[in-house]
C-alpha cells in the first residue's frame, strides 16, 4: 500500500508534519482590534454623553420627589379617583427613581468608561500581593469611571442614590408593629360598622334587604346601613362588606354557639378573603362553595365557610343576623373575630 504523506491531528489538537516528526501548534489569534467609540474621539460627543448620563440621574431624583409628593402632599385620599392618582404617582415615582439610576449607569459604562479587553496571566496569590492587587483594582475602577474628572455625573449620581432609598424607609416606618400606632391599627382591624340592629343593605344602592327577598341560590353583596355617612367610607367599607346567601337549613353544619346566627338558612359572611384580603365574589350554587379569584382559596358555605382548598388559613368570619319587626335583616352584633387576612396580633 502507498505511504500517506499527509499530517494527522493528535489528541492535543496539534498537527504533525509528515516526515519531520515536529509539531505545529495553532497560533493564538490574540484579542480583536479595539474599535473606538465616537465619545473616544470626539470631545463634543463625550460631553453630550456625560450630559445624558446626568439627565438620567436627574430623572431618578425627580421620580423620588414625585413619590414624596404623592405620599405626603396627597395624604389619605377620600375617593377612588384620588386613590388612583396617588397609586399612579407612587408607582411611577418609584419606577423612574430606580430606572433612572439603572439606565444611567449602563449608559455611562457603554459610552464613557473604557471598553477595551484585557488579558492577564494568572500568578501565585499571597496575602500581601492580594492586598496590593485589590488596591490596584479599586484605583483602576475609580480611574476608568472618570468620576473624579466628571463632577456633573458624580454629583447627580450621589443625589439620586441618596434619595432613592428614602421612600422605602418611610414605607417600612408605617409598618412599625410596636407602640401606640400599632395598637390603634389592631383596634381598627378588630371592629367594623356592624352593630346591634344595623340593617343589611344592598351594595352599592343602600336599599334594605328583607328576609323574603333572599331565595335559595341567590347572593347579595351587602354593606351596613349608613355607610355613606361614615367619616372614612372606603376604609369602613373595606372591613364591613358581606356576602348574604340562603341555604337549605338541612344542609348546614352549625357549630355550638352559632345556632341563632342565621335566619331560616340565610347566612352572612365577610367578603374579605382571610389570605391577603381579596374580595370573595364567586359563589357556586350547586356545591355551595365560595371562591376567591385571586389565589383560588375555596370556602364551604355548608361548613361555616371552612377552608377546603387554597392558601387561606382561616374560615371567613360570620356575621350574626336576625330579622326585625318589619321583616328586614339586621345584624345582631359586630363580627366576633377580626375580618380580613392575618396580622401580627391574630397569628
TrEMBL record:
Molecular function terms, GO-annotated: 2 iron, 2 sulfur cluster binding; metal ion binding; monooxygenase activity; oxidoreductase activity, acting on paired donors, with incorporation or reduction of molecular oxygen
Family recorded in the similarity comment: Belongs to the Rieske iron-sulfur protein family.
Protein name per UniProt: Cytochrome bc1 complex Rieske iron-sulfur subunit
One Pfam family cited in the UniProt record for this chain: Rieske
Leader sequence segment: none
Annotated function: Iron-sulfur subunit of the cytochrome bc1 complex, an essential component of the respiratory electron transport chain required for ATP synthesis. The bc1 complex catalyzes the oxidation of menaquinol and the reduction of cytochrome c in the respiratory chain. The bc1 complex operates through a Q-cycle mechanism that couples electron transfer to generation of the proton gradient that drives ATP synthesis.
Keywords, alphabetical: 2Fe-2S, Cell membrane, Disulfide bond, Electron transport, Iron, Iron-sulfur, Membrane, Metal-binding, Oxidoreductase, Respiratory chain, Transmembrane, Transmembrane helix, Transport
Rieske domain segment(s): 266-330
Protein topology in the membrane: Multi-pass membrane protein
Record lineage: Bacteria, Bacillati, Actinomycetota, Actinomycetes, Micrococcales
Membrane-spanning parts: 53-74, 86-109
Residue ranges of the region described as Disordered: 1-44
Amino acid at each position: 500500500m502507498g505511504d500517506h504523506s499527509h499530517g494527522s491531528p493528535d489528541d492535543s489538537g496539534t498537527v504533525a508534519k509528515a516526515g519531520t516528526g515536529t509539531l505545529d501548534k495553532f497560533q493564538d489569534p490574540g484579542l480583536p482590534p479595539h474599535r473606538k467609540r465616537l465619545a473616544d474621539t470626539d470631545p463634543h460627543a463625550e460631553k453630550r454623553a456625560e450630559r445624558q448620563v446626568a439627565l438620567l440621574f436627574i430623572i431618578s431624583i425627580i421620580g423620588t420627589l414625585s413619590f414624596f409628593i404623592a405620599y405626603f402632599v396627597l395624604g389619605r385620599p377620600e375617593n377612588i379617583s384620588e386613590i388612583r392618582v396617588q397609586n399612579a404617582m407612587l408607582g411611577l415615582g418609584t419606577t423612574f427613581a430606580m430606572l433612572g439610576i439603572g439606565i444611567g449607569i449602563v449608559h455611562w459604562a457603554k459610552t464613557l468608561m473604557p471598553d477595551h479587553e484585557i488579558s492577564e496571566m494568572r500568578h501565585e496569590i499571597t496575602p500581601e500581593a492580594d492586598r496590593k492587587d485589590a488596591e490596584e483594582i479599586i484605583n483602576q475602577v475609580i480611574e476608568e469611571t472618570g468620576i473624579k474628572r466628571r463632577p456633573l455625573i458624580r454629583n447627580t449620581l450621589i443625589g439620586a442614590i441618596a434619595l432613592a432609598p428614602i421612600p422605602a424607609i418611610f414605607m417600612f416606618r408605617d409598618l412599625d408593629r410596636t407602640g401606640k400606632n400599632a395598637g390603634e391599627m389592631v383596634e381598627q382591624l378588630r371592629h367594623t360598622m356592624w352593630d346591634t340592629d344595623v340593617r343589611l343593605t344592598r351594595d352599592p344602592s343602600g336599599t334594605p334587604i328583607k328576609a323574603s327577598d333572599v331565595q335559595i341560590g341567590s347572593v347579595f353583596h351587602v354593606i351596613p346601613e349608613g355607610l355613606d355617612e361614615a367619616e372614612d367610607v372606603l376604609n369602613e367599607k373595606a372591613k364591613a362588606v358581606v356576602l348574604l346567601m340562603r341555604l337549605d337549613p338541612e344542609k348546614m353544619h352549625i357549630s355550638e354557639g352559632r345556632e341563632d346566627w342565621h335566619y331560616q338558612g340565610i347566612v352572612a359572611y365577610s367578603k374579605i378573603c382571610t389570605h391577603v384580603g381579596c374580595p370573595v365574589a364567586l359563589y357556586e350554587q350547586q356545591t355551595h362553595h365560595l371562591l376567591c379569584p385571586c389565589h383560588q382559596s375555596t370556602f364551604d358555605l355548608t361548613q361555616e365557610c371552612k377552608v377546603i382548598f387554597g392558601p387561606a388559613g382561616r374560615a371567613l368570619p360570620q356575621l350574626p343576623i336576625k330579622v326585625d319587626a318589619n321583616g328586614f335583616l339586621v345584624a345582631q352584633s359586630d363580627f366576633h373575630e377580626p375580618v380580613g387576612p392575618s396580622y401580627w396580633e391574630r397569628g
